[in-house]
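Re: that backbone. Tokens:
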């Protein structure tokens, strides 16, 4: 590059220097595209207003409906208001050669609550009933199971109580959740029930954000919300738009940010409900040919090279931020977007694998613009990328050559814990490997650390607690009746969580119920289980029952977060290793005034184990072996530990901290 200054991403990581041209090329592509879409002088926010133009809207003297359908020959609105028949009064007009259609109606032509669809006729001779792509409310008939768009225009709009909420990111503590399965009852739970019953738990447990799945409308409940049909409609199976807004508003009043799981990586292939063949062109929103279908997800792949698709998706980002006051997004399936292969069968062993021409530059450009737009609309917004490939720069600033996400999910961590539990005997758990895996991340890119998310809880997989304890969860989880497997599982469950959360460099995530070791997998109603809701719920009564072991885990999780948040901005303080010994299976590291000590040995306790730390007094602020958390209570946590003087290290201001550390336990001390 001669004397030219390196772009930020390369300046921070010299190993990326051979790929600087590619990094600059992707950056310049996004700059060019933004200028093209905005005319060079406008903003992305001004461009991303499709939701205000398309769809059905109440006007000062009636209604206006617009849809983009370049291949349509004719469009009628049919619904409750005209007996579901084609009528001239409800016939849309084509707006020149723009590909857009419009219908203006007087105020009495349709009413709040009416069901409707488009009747579309297209050039190839076909026709069909369709739900408008931009509609903001879709409901399902309980008897026929048919979905329809619904006119939604309440006389009194929702009045927001919390108008200028700012998320607390120091650190960001995320409670991942799903509204429908958030209740104890065997049914689909509601926005209202979540607000009343779950939000107080989230607040009490110390989390400052919820990450809500399955908000965008999806015809099949069992898809977990990942086969989206109506991108601008909040799922009506959980309640009304106003009830979702009240949930968000209430969360904000409790200091809890609300992050939405956003699915822009693919779409349901449905035609009657979704975008599969809106108006005679199966490729209106999607790639043609071999790239049309996702080979693993039974879905359709957006064509990020089309301006109309970019307009649709960017408008979608802005809509959820402004209409529902969401505080940001966790972008699902980013790996699938980044690569022509969708990441399937790719190993990603070296930097060359990210710049070898297998990447979808259009998708990269879209993700970059989405981050720019989101932070333009709300500078405090949070964006998180779900990417398993490790793409460099994903969570680096746009100006530095990155894609602009605030965080990336540390997807290596749950994979590591599962591999360790499955493949290694307890005596072969090496602290050096654990520490390296928890702290191995790209400099300058913040991550969300987690032990397990909803992915590990789904049917066909196992949660950490079930991998550790298995069937004894059913027979020996009553206090006083714990088996050896239960005692081991409870101890390691706490240690795994503490190690993961305490080494975070951005935030920490937990899936609802996993903090207390929720038993069993998640299995949504389907034909194979008799359409049962038994495993599509959360059994809160288990953690509330003081005679069961679950509350020990829940109480520990709460205490752990309290300790971590007692240090301001702990996620920004460097993690400094103090000691590891793979033979003893002991690990110690410091974070500011906190010292974390782990003994992973299943059998050996150490009565006087010593570490060099800054001289002073240290008090115990958390002990996984405390009786309050289901431990043995072997150590006296009321003792204040004073470092032992050593002339060899006095000049460095260090002394020996001597501790009793029981087998399979962790302790956190604070300098006082």
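Recovered sequence:
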């Amino acid at each position: 590059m001669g004397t030219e200054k390196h772009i930020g991403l390369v300046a921070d990581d010299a190993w990326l220097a051979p790929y600087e041209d590619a990094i600059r090329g992707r950056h310049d592509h996004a700059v060019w595209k933004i200028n093209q879409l905005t005319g060079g002088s406008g903003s992305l926010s001004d461009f991303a207003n499709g939701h205000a133009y398309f769809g059905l809207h109440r006007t000062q003297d009636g209604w206006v409906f617009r849809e983009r359908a370049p291949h349509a020959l004719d469009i009628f609105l049919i619904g409750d208001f005209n007996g579901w028949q084609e009528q001239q009064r409800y016939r849309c007009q084509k707006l020149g050669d723009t590909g857009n259609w419009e219908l203006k109606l007087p105020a009495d032509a349709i009413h709040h609550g009416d069901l409707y669809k488009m009747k579309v006729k297209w050039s190839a001779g076909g026709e069909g009933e369709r739900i408008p792509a931009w509609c903001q409310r879709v409901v399902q008939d309980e008897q026929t199971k048919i979905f329809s768009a619904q006119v939604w225009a309440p006389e009194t709009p929702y009045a927001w109580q919390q108008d200028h909420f700012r998320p607390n990111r120091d650190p960001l503590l995320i409670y991942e959740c799903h509204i429908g399965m958030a209740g104890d009852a065997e049914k689909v739970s509601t926005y209202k029930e979540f607000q009343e019953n779950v939000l107080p738990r989230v607040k009490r447990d110390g989390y400052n954000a919820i990450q809500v799945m399955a908000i965008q409308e999806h015809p099949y409940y069992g898809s977990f919300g990942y086969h989206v049909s109506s991108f601008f409609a909040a799922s009506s199976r959980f309640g009304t738009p106003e009830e979702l807004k009240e949930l968000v508003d209430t969360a904000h009043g409790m200091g809890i940010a609300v992050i939405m799981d956003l699915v822009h990586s693919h779409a349901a292939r449905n035609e009657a409900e979704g975008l599969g063949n809106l108006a005679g062109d199966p490729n209106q929103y999607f790639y043609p040919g071999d790239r049309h279908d996702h080979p693993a997800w039974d879905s359709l792949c957006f064509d990020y090279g089309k301006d109309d698709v970019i307009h649709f998706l960017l408008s979608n980002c802005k809509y959820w931020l402004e209409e529902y006051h969401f505080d940001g997004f966790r972008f699902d399936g980013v790996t699938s977007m980044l690569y022509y292969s969708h990441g399937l069968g790719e190993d990603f062993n070296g930097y060359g694998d990210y710049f070898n021409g297998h990447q979808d530059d259009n998708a990269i450009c879209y993700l970059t613009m989405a981050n720019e737009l989101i932070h333009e609309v709300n500078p405090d917004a949070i964006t998180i990328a779900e990417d398993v490939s490790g793409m460099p720069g994903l969570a680096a600033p746009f100006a530095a050559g990155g894609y602009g996400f605030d965080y990336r999910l540390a997807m290596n961590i749950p994979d590591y814990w599962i591999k360790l539990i499955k493949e290694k005997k307890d005596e072969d758990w090496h602290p050096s490997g654990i520490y390296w895996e928890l702290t191995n991340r790209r400099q300058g890119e913040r991550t969300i650390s987690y032990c397990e998310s909803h992915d590990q809880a789904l049917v066909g997989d196992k949660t950490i607690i079930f991998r550790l304890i298995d069937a004894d969860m059913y027979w020996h989880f009553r206090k006083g009746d714990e088996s050896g497997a239960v005692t081991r599982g409870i101890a390691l469950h706490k240690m795994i969580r503490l190690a993961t959360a305490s080494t975070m460099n951005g935030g920490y995530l937990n899936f609802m119920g996993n903090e207390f070791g929720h038993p069993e997998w998640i299995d949504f109603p389907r034909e194979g289980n008799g359409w049962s809701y038994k495993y599509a719920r959360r059994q809160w009564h288990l953690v509330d029952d003081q005679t069961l072991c679950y509350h020990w885990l829940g109480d520990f999780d709460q205490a752990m977060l309290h300790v971590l948040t007692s240090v301001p901005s702990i996620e920004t303080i460097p993690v400094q290793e103090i000691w590891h010994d793979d033979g003893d299976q002991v690990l110690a590291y410091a974070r500011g005034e906190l010292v974390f000590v782990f003994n992973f040995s299943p059998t050996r306790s150490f009565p006087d184990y010593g570490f060099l730390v800054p001289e002073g007094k240290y008090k115990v602020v958390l002990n996984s072996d405390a009786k309050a958390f289901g431990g043995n209570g072997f150590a006296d946590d009321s003792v204040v530990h004073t470092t032992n003087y050593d002339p060899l290290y006095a000049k460095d201001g260090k002394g020996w901290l001597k501790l009793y550390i029981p087998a399979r336990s962790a302790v956190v001390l604070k300098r006082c």
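Residues 23 and 70 are 35 Å apart (CA to CA). The longest strand covers residues 606-614.
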